[in-house]
Amino acid sequence: MIPSYRFIDPLTAEPLDEPPVPNLTIDRLTGEISGVIDFPGGGVIPIAIEIFHSFASRTQQFDLVISPAAGGVGGELAGDLDGDGFVTMVERAFGTSDLKANTAAESPGIETVSVDGKSFAAIRFPILPTGAFDEETMTYTAQGYEYRAEISKNLKDWDSNPDNVVLFELNHTTTENTSGVEMKSLCIRATEEMGDEPTFLRVVITRLP
Predict the structure, then answer these.
(1) Count of other CB atoms within 10 angstroms of residue 193
(2) What are phi and psi of 163, to 5 degrees?
(3) Which of 79-88, 122-131, 133-142, 177-186 has the lowest average pLDDT?
(4) Percentage, residues of the chain above pLDDT 90
(5) For the chain, how far is it from start to end, CA to CA, in angstroms?
(6) DSSP 8-class letter at 8
(7) pTM for this one?
(8) How far is CA 133 from the centre of its chain?
(9) What separation in angstroms does the CA of 129 have from each of 5, 65, 137, 179?
């Protein structure tokens, strides 16, 4: 059975009449997200997607956060040459090309992980190799980029406190992505077991001075 994809409201899970961000589109058959978004000063793109067919459905939610470094992200790093909705800074952090609209395939993904028989919400995302993870600040730094996973219960208050998020897996084996770049992956999970209340996770990327 072939599934369909659509944007939904992150809080109500109701289908959206308009995309969560102007000019953002999703292919109903493939789930590919594309579009040209202009936010040179940095910003947040909250995205919730429902994958559904006649008998079942599941959702994926993530925020792609573009956090400007000192002086802001401008010039070359703020461009989007391939028009896929991801600025150059994010393309470089995810190891993709700003000349080929394929970043969606390398975007962060929400998943459920199991620890001691308990289920936890987690977010997995690509990272550049030759970097280091700091468990005190819950950040990974590589080649001038800082990656940080944050958690929220209401989409307003976010934090990366080690009491709330913890390292689940740092894959030290590099894998060639769709752009031919060798990348690692990092998975951060919530410390609180999944329950009735929603849990939201996002990735913050900062270009270091």
Answers:
(1) 12
(2) -75, -20
(3) 79-88
(4) 32
(5) 49
(6) B
(7) 0.63
(8) 18
(9) 32, 21, 19, 15
